[in-house]
Design a protein that fits this description.
The protein is mainly β and 182 residues long. The chain has helices at 32-38, 167-170, and strands at 2-5, 12-15, 19-21, 24-26, 46-53, 57-63, 70-76, 78-85, 96-102, 108-111, 115-121, 125-132, 141-143. The chain has one domain: Jelly Rolls (Sandwich). The relative contact order is 0.25.
């Protein structure tokens, strides 16, 4: 596998080695010893799967007391996936990194546990799977507003278009009011 460091706060793109022939293809999506050695030394304890339509934006989410690192992959369709450093003491606090993940490019994004995460569906629909470094804990779940100008995220939305959001994501606070890591 190839690993591309996004240059900020530990976010990394993981690109598997794909073996293709006339029958199709094969590639490893998970290999713990390589992940621990080359990406981040942790256990991944929970798998999640979401299905969404074009224009759905999920996020930006994080867990304050039980931070979850996430290894994200689009198994069908295409998404724009974003991580935001939520550590107030970090020189990259509030900095975001985003990449296109798709069933075509087969790339994965590692989002460190101190980051908020969100994605926008760019294809007619998408299935997104992700492995988490801690279990979901509803009591510690937090959000930050997807379009807070302080974050400067350039979501690939058509001009004038608004994403489809959950009620929770519509009510998310700006970064300045969000509960963050120290």
């Amino acid at each position: 596998m190839k690993i591309f460091d996004l240059g900020v706060f530990g976010a990394k793109v993981v690109e598997p080695r794909v073996f293709s022939d006339g029958r199709g293809c094969f590639f490893e999506t998970w290999r713990e010893n390589e992940f621990r050695r080359r990406v981040y030394d942790c256990s991944l304890v929970q798998d999640n799967h979401s299905t969404s339509a074009r224009g759905v934006l999920r996020g930006l989410h994080y867990q304050i007391r039980h931070p979850q690192g996430k290894l994200i992959r689009a198994v069908r369709g295409e998404i724009y996936d974003v991580a935001v450093d939520m550590r107030r003491s970090s020189p990259t606090f509030g900095v975001s990194a985003g990449v296109v993940l798709s069933s075509e490019n087969r790339r994965m994004l590692w989002i460190p546990p101190w980051c908020a995460h969100g994605f926008l569906v760019m294809s007619p629909d998408a299935d997104v799977v992700y492995r988490c470094s801690d279990y979901y804990d509803p009591a510690s779940e937090r959000s930050v507003r997807w379009n807070d100008p302080a974050l400067g995220i350039r979501w690939p939305l058509p001009e004038g278009a608004q994403p489809e959001l959950s009620a929770k994501d519509e009510a998310a606070p700006d970064l300045s009011a969000a509960e963050c890591y120290d």
